[in-house]
Write a structure and sequence with these properties.
By secondary structure, the chain is an alpha/beta fold. About 40% of the residues lie in helices and about 15% in strands. The strands form two sheets. Strands 1, 4, 5, 6, 7 and 8 form a six-stranded mixed beta sheet that branches. It has a two-stranded antiparallel sheet with strand order 2-3. Strand 5 and strand 6 form a beta hairpin.
């Protein structure tokens, strides 16, 4: 579009959003940005970091109701915004779900934090310049984080094999990924786990010798850059809360935000 051209109506994009999702246009755009970084020799081909975060869902706590409940009776005549009393009611993801966004899960980020309806968003970062190699949107959960990490790792491995790049060699992560099953999965893929250890827990490929190695210490230092990327995406990128309902739609938002971050970083490095 020319600078003086009249912009299209927002409803045009909304009507064609399903077509964009069907043909994975956002994923293709993101992959093109990563390919540009590869061509400019900005990416590490072997050493990566993985992490996940919670994105607040576009759903209210009032919509989080029992799965077998058809409609909760209200205490007043306001049908558009009825008053509902949840006092004394125990709510969990096993018995309740959001009626407006069933993919959202009720979680809290830590002790003393308020529980909110959230979606999961995961990132695979390369360790040279801290650029995003891949992202994945899922339901929120600890086990889901490890599955998403393997999904992104396999996807990057296939891309590297197709382009003739080196296969992944190491993967840095925090203590949330310190699990026996995940350690075996990485070793099966010939990837050395550089994961923060939990005291007293033995994990294959993550013994004291590995944790004391210079490579593991470097991975643990670099992995903190992921938090900086998530911070940028949630503040500057406006991805603290999803603007859409459903995994497919908020996944598109995450892909475009990640692509924008890579372009911003690449422009500064090229300058």
């Amino acid at each position: 579009m020319a600078l003086d051209a009249e912009p299209f109506n927002h409803s045009v994009f909304s009507k064609n959003r399903d077509r964009l999702i069907e043909h994975e246009i956002s994923r293709q755009f993101f992959n093109r940005v990563v390919a540009m970084a590869h061509k400019a020799v900005m990416l590490s081909e072997e050493h990566f970091t993985v992490d996940g975060t919670l994105i607040e869902a576009w759903a209210s706590m009032r919509s989080f109701r029992p799965k077998d409940e058809a409609e909760r009776p209200s205490g007043d005549d306001d049908l558009s915004n009825p008053s509902v009393n949840f006092f004394g009611e125990k709510r969990s993801n096993k018995t309740h779900e959001s009626k407006t966004d069933p993919d959202a899960r009720l979680l809290r980020k830590g002790r003393g934090k308020a529980a909110k309806l959230c979606d999961g968003f995961h990132m695979l970062m390369e360790n040279r310049h801290g650029l995003i190699l891949d992202v994945e949107s899922t339901r929120a959960g600890v086990k889901v984080e490890r599955d998403a990490a393997l999904t992104m790792l396999d996807r990057v491995r296939r891309k590297h094999e197709h382009a003739g790049h080196k296969p992944p060699a190491t993967l840095g992560a925090d203590k949330g990924y310190h699990a026996n099953e995940f350690g075996y999965d990485l070793l099966d893929r010939s990837v050395m786990p550089h994961i923060a250890r939990i005291a007293g827990r033995d994990t294959p490929g993550l013994d004291g010798r590995t944790a004391r190695s210079a490579g593991c210490r470097m991975s643990q230092r670099i992995r903190k850059r992921v938090d900086e990327i998530f911070g940028w995406m949630k503040t500057v990128g406006g991805f603290r809360k999803s603007l859409f309902r459903g995994r497919a739609l908020y996944g598109e938002q995450g892909l475009m935000t990640a692509a924008a971050y890579n372009l911003m970083r690449m422009s500064r490095m090229m300058a």
